Every structure is written in C-alpha cells, then in structure tokens.
Amino acid sequence: MNTRTFQSALGILPALALLAGGGALQVQGDTEPNLNLTTGPAAQYCADKGGVVEYRHPFYGTNNPNPLRLAGTLAFCSFTASDGSSIHLSLETLYTKHPTLATLAYYAKVTPGKCTGNPASCYCSLLGGTDLFGGINAAGGAWVNHNSAIVDLDACIFPDLSTIDSWGLTYHSAGIIRGIDLAKVLRYPKP
Q: For labelling alongside 33, which of 2, 39, 61, 146 has CA 20 to 30 A away?
C-alpha cells in the first residue's frame, strides 16, 4: 500500500497545526488531493476515528482493458478491520450531523429484495441509490484508487449525493460488520 503521511503531502507546518488536535492523518490517492478536503475537519475526523482518507476517481469500463477516466474526484474515508474487511463512505457522509439517505440506509438494515446480477448493486438500487456507470451493461464502472487495497470501489450514491460502499451496506443489512460499525463513528446518530 502506498500511503503518504500528511506531513509529506503538505509540508511540516500545516501538519503540525493539524496534529496538535488529534491523530495522524494519512492520505491515499493517485494525484495531489484537494487541500481544503485534506486539511478540513472532516478529514481530521476520519483520521481520529481510525480511518484513512482516499481520493477516488470515477472510471467507466472497468471490465475492459482500457477503462475511461471520467471527470471528478471524491474523498472517501476508508475503515479497514484486522480481518481485512473494509467499508468506505464519502467524507461528507461521515462528517455531517444531518441525516442523509446513505446513513439512513445503513441504519435501516432493509432486507434485500430479489434481483439478478451483482447483489450489492441490486441492493443499492432497491434503496434508491445507484452504483452503476452507464446503466446495466457489461462495461462496468467504479470509483478507482490504484494505491488502495480495494482498487475498484462500488459506491452507492443517493439523490442527496451521500455515498457509501455498496458491499459494506449490503453486508450490514445481513448483520455483518465490514471494516467498522459505522454507527460508532457517524456524526448523525441512529434515529
């Protein structure tokens, strides 16, 4: 894993100011991160709770040899457990004190309905989100970080733009915790 500490990414002075208030912030990504996201309170909160900030880029055609990188970058907080399981969610979804569709879906543990194909993608769709790039097709798509243990992430994005790992959400609906129990770290408390 290619992990950069906050100090090497941004320089020693901003790092010292940030570290005075909490744990060491680690950042993973393919390009230089947006400094506002890296130094902001959401990124620090992620680190304080044991997560790692990952910057991911949307790619279309991940089932093909030459996928197409799309515009944009999204900052995720990644939590990995000692068993190697993990769960990712956007920094905004983690940090907000307001309800989001992603946090409500996590807390609800809705029983999955019946559908065919990828069970995590199906579950995400049944809850009103999507993790599909270009609709249902064989091309595939994902949020990619080449420096992460999970390179291609299926992220369920809801209409309010809240975002959570599709597989982590699906496993949680069956009572299986991957990475960390988000109920212990989400700032929006369980209703």
A: 61
Tell me which residue of 149, 151, 148, 127 sits closest to 140, measured CA to CA.
Answer: 151
**What 3-state class would DSSP assign to 87?**
strand
At 26, which amino acid appears? Answer: Q
| Cα 78 from Cα 86, distance rounded (Å) | 7
Q: How confident is the model at residue 63 (pLDDT cuts 50, 70, 90)?
A: confident
DSSP 3-state of 91: helix
Both structure tokens of 158: 């809801």
Q: Is 44 helix (H, G, I), strand (E, B) or coil?
A: helix
Written as one string, the DSSP assignment of 100-156 is -HHHHHHHH-PPP---SS-HHHHHHHHTT-B--SSSSSSS-EEEE-TTSSS-EE-EE
Q: Where are the domains of the chain?
A: 4-184
In degrees, rounded to 5, the angle at the alpha carbon of residue 123 between the alpha carbons of residues 157 and 96 is 35
CA distances from 185 to 23, 52, 95, 146 (A): 15, 13, 9, 26
Predicted pLDDT of residue 39:
60
Q: What is the identity of the amino acid at 178?
A: R
Kindly report the pTM of this predicted structure.
0.78
pLDDT in tens, 105-127: 999 988 877 877 889 999 999 99
